[in-house]
Design goal:
Blueprint (H helix, E strand, L loop, with lengths): L3 E6 L3 E6 L4 E5 H6 L27 E7 L2 E6 L6 E4 H6 L26 E3 H6 L1 H14 L1 E5 L5 H11 L11 E3 L15 E4 L11 E13 L2 E5 H11 L1 H9 L2 E7 L2 E7 L2 E3 L5 E4 L13 H18 L5 E4 L5 E6 L3 E5 L2 E12 L1 H11 L1
Parallel strand pairs: 7-8
Antiparallel strand pairs: 1-2, 2-3, 4-5, 5-6, 8-18, 9-20, 10-19, 11-18, 11-20, 12-17, 12-19, 13-14, 15-16
């Protein structure tokens, strides 16, 4: 861990020079706002107790010193001495725009470059290391198979709850289904499903989905996964204008049926406030009608054509007939999933997880 070499005061900030030469300027109000004493930060909830707006704007440090791994600051006004662990300051020694995501390295792939990510069921269920590997693989590659999963709904539900609580949607929480059209969705048929993400009609689409085939007696039904981040990077390099169209045009998605009319809208390529691609949102089945000015509408269709041609190129697709015992968790903000048409009996189960819950679980494990 970096160590503090020297401290220097001025009217605005405490300047910290670190042992490796990095210099950080912490404004006095920031140091007071982030103090770790019990009156400022609740020792159990880790919530800030300070009424920040009532801290005098002219607050200045009188003295600062490092004692037993803690920075201690006394103030020129009637404020209690502030104590901040040096380890806490280290985490913020490089000023950055705040981001909330877990920074798992993302490996872009096409079919030829992908080693199918797997982890054994028993390892996931019985060890934190196995659970961390499962979730890390899912964010790194966009999906991961948990092999050796008992082909029962109970075991599948226990597996998904190992990662987080199950999200309730129009389809319920944990669900079992087969091709019976019990819901107004093509997934409840035997038809081909081209690559898509789920819940483009939701303002906050589920971050991931678990699917487990409990029984399959028939032909066809090959599952497909496509790395839509790879598509985005290819479009950015080869068709930058069309990439910009899919990054800026807000596309509505809708679900009509089962007593609901859900509607939401966002670009196919959604970037966060730092400009980083964080979500691909695409479902041609659920795309709602919208009309732009003529040139913009034509440009959207041009971009859509390139995107869908890439998504349906076999060279971009991981293809696999899911067997009982292979539980598939995939990142619904990253990959497109689909299924070939089939005949026979195919009984599935699964559920959705929120993105923040997957990330929360990982923060506790790594």
């Amino acid at each position: 861990m970096a160590t503090i070499a020297s401290l220097r005061h001025d009217d605005a900030s405490l300047e910290v020079t670190w042992g490796d030469g990095v210099v950080t300027r912490y404004p006095w109000l920031w140091l007071r706002d982030h103090a770790h004493d019990d009156e400022t930060m609740h020792p159990v909830t880790q919530q800030r107790q300070l009424f920040t707006a009532r801290v005098p704007a002219a607050l200045r440090g009188l003295n600062s010193e490092v004692v037993d791994g803690e920075l201690r600051v006394t103030w020129d006004m009637l404020e209690p001495t502030s104590v901040l662990p040096v380890s806490f300051l280290v985490a913020y020694r490089h000023p950055l725009t705040a981001r909330a995501a877990v920074d798992v390295p993302v490996t872009l792939w096409s079919a030829a470059s992908l080693p199918t990510p797997t982890v054994p069921y028993d390892l996931v269920m019985n060890t934190d290391a196995g659970l961390a590997q499962w979730l890390t693989n899912t964010l790194q590659y966009g999906f991961c198979l948990v092999i050796g999963t008992p082909a029962t709904a109970a075991a599948s539900e226990a597996l998904i709850r190992r990662a987080g609580y199950i999200r309730e949607t129009i389809f319920g929480g944990f669900w079992e289904f087969q091709a019976d059209m019990s819901k107004a969705d093509t997934a409840y048929s035997t038809l081909e499903l081209r690559g898509h993400t789920d819940a483009t009609y939701s303002n906050d689409a589920p971050g991931s989905q678990l699917l487990h085939c409990l029984e399959f007696v028939g032909t066809g039904g090959e599952s497909t996964i496509v790395d839509a981040f790879t598509i985005a990077r290819r479009m950015e390099a080869e068709h930058p204008g069309l990439f910009e169209v899919l990054s800026s045009v807000v596309v509505p998605g809708q679900y009509i049926g089962d007593g609901a009319h859900l509607l939401a809208a966002r670009p196919v390529f959604r970037h966060d406030h730092t400009g980083r691609l964080v979500q691909v949102s695409f479902n041609n089945y659920d795309r709602a009608p919208f009309l732009l000015e003529e040139a913009d509408m034509i440009a959207f269709y041009d971009a859509l054509r390139v995107f869908e041609e890439l998504a349906n190129d076999p060279a971009m697709q991981w293809r696999h007939v899911l067997q009982p015992g292979e539980a598939l968790l995939f990142d619904n903000w990253r990959v497109l999933h689909g299924r070939a048409a089939y005949s026979g009996l195919r009984r599935m189960c699964g559920g959705y997880l929120n993105r923040e819950d997957i990330e929360s679980r990982l923060r506790q494990l790594i």
